[in-house]
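--- STAGE predict ---
source: upstream dedup step, 1 unique chain passed
mode: sequence only
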Amino acid sequence: MLLEPCKTFRDPVHGDIQLPHGVLTELIDHPDFQRLRRIRQLGVCYCTFHGAEHSRFQHTLGACWLAFQVVRNWTWQQQVELTPQEVQSTLCAVLLHDVGHGPFSHALEHVFTGVDHESIGWEFIRTRFRAVLERHGVEPESVISILRGDNPRRLLHELISGQLDVDRMDYLQRDSLFTGTRYGMFDVQRILSSLTAVYDLERGCEVLAVDAKAIEAVEAFLFSRYFMHWQVYFHRAVRSAEFLLQSILRRARSLYPRLKVPDGLRFLFEGGALTPNFLNGFIESDDTDVVAAIKLWMHGPEPVLADLCHRFLSRRLPKVIEGGQPELQQAVKELVARRFPEVDYYFGVDHPSDLALEDAKTPIRVLSGRGRQWRHLAEVTRTRALRSLSERVSQDLIFFPPECRDEVERLV
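--- STAGE serialize ---
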């Protein structure tokens, strides 16, 4: 597979992405994979960063390209022994890791129970993509086991989902480019060429490690992740837009079946997740279905839902203040309730939280000395500030309508 002719994709982040013809290109051409072109990578982030219109399609191709470079290096340099089947399954897993995402997926997952993008994605691999995989000798369950983390080759799972994975390495750079920020810049090629395998006695298997020569590149990656979370993913206006969209969906769910719902979203309101009806509707839905529903409801007879939809489409987002004190939160809620009786759709509290270096759970292993011995990154770093990334950072945000701004400011 690593020596087969490649198809080239021009990419704004990585330049030319070259993936071998065969199972990967056939999966990319599959209609259910092409749907990812219509799913924004960052959901409602475009409400704040107007360039954030890039798609999950772009991201999955980028992540697959990074993984392809790693397994190619391992094979050519004879660092890690991988069978052709393991190489194929790994690259298919990277390519398909986001197929379970729905329109504005994180908002949907918070409002509709059972909408878990990982479980949905695994089900699509078993069903919708099975024919393509099996035609090329790839077992769908082997792809799923790598994604789920119960494959005997733990190394392959950590390459896709770990502290130092190709998923994060692509989306940090991609999101940084399209949001117009510069926090996601780091030496990705240095990291890719330094990734290797070590044997973990505690786990009893091979796991992912990095050569000591790439420590500074890894540190830059971790700081990039930290800054991107607090400057982009946890940006106040982004969280505010997410809250407003969730309020719309919660209100619509409470009104169903009296509410008119477009056919493209009816699956969310009828039956449970992972049923055939749900999955068929899910795989045909994208961001445009949610926007079309919001435009429909904005002119509907239900005043609260219509108002919320109008606020979202005209970008009249809730205002935000910091406040972790229960007394302040309750006081703001009571103030909002005087003007908006359906207060739970207009007032909210958010608790964004991040742990940039989860060294105890999934350590970043650095080769030390000769042989294949390793130590935790936190033990070998010369950067004192890095240790602070292992401390959880959180924030308490209070959302309220712009009409209440003066009163809330006087209250604060």
